[in-house]
Amino acid sequence: MGFDIVNDPQAQLAERIINLLFTRDYIRPAAPAFAFTCTPEQFRTLAGPPESDGNYPDAFTELGLYGRIGTLGAKATFPGVQKVDPLTSGWQAKLPQAARAALAQLEKAGTITSAGGEITLDAKAKTLKIVAPKCEVFTFAGNETGKVMRLSNGSRYQTVALLSLDGRELGESRSLLLIQMPNLAATKMKFANSRRNLLESWGQLPLLLEKCKADVELTLPAGFRVEALKLDGTVAGAVPVAYRDGKLRFTADTSARKGGVMAYHLTR
Questions:
Q1: How many other CB atoms are found less than 10 A from the CB of residue 86?
Q2: CB 92 within 8 A of CB 59
Q3: Which of 185, 190, 260, 184 is nearest to 228 (CA)?
Q4: Contact 15/44 with Cβ under 8 angstroms?
Q5: What global pTM score does this model have?
Q6: What is the distance, to the nearest Å, from the Cα of residue 176 to the centroid of all Cα atoms in its chain?
Q7: How far apart are CA 263 and CA 228, in angstroms?
Q8: How far apart are CA 11 and CA 5, in angstroms?
Q9: Is residue 48 scored above 60 in pLDDT?
Q10: Cβ neighbours, 10 Å, residue 80
Q11: pLDDT score recorded for residue 41
Q12: What is the average per-residue pLDDT within 25-38?
């Protein structure tokens, strides 16, 4: 863990979500793979603002929302990887039809689904939906539904992740972690614009956690106990739940306990 997130609970929780999703293969690696390639002569002609030098062209980066992307030298090859040259016009025409269709859908409607079918991004609605056997993760406001998790009455824009801790599929797991992440910022943190992407002041302690609720409905077997967790992982207390018609229900509320709540442990 880098020092830059040691005092940022939101970044630490996001890192744990990413770790489970991608280093433990909770998300299937995409089968299609594409490699950016160019000659040394082409590379020398590239120029741009200092902050973007060395970045992939935007169109090639977007291809990473569909499949795997990387880099290969002009003379190198790798099994199962298609080399493309995004510095030449019409390079997309050489992509497989499914990849071209995914990029066309992104350009037309702002939505794209990964080749494995588990990750869907809606750029216009600003939502992300991940549905896989061992995890479901939603970035949303209002309502969102997966196969196991249904969220409603989301009071703020937030990310909610349901993750298996014992490696079993969600419906079979006996230990689940639910993470709820709305906005979090330092006291008197100041931005120069409404998009909050130009920082003027880091602010000061204490960190402020946005008040945020969501009604959680999980298609799980009976017998689950739900406990709110402190940010150090210790138990803060039991959470009232209801179970009927094969659904476990409770309310995730960041302001339910002193100091805030961003995580819940579900066990049976």
A1: 18
A2: yes
A3: 260
A4: no
A5: 0.90
A6: 18
A7: 6
A8: 6
A9: no
A10: 8
A11: 73
A12: 92
Percent of the chain with pLDDT over 70: 94
Residue 132 carries which side chain, given as an amino acid letter? Answer: A
Mean pLDDT to the nearest integer, 141-170: 97
pLDDT, mean over the chain: 92
pLDDT in tens, 231-252: 889 999 999 999 999 999 999 9
Cα gap 171→163, rounded to integer Å: 11
Residue 262 near residue 231, CB atoms below 8 Å = yes
- Smallest CA-to-CA distance from 162 within 142, 133, 140, 184 is with 133
CA-CA distance, 259 to 263, in Å (whole number)? 12
Q: CB of 139 within 8 A of CB of 158?
A: yes
Half-sphere exposure of 192 (CA within 13 A, CB side): 5
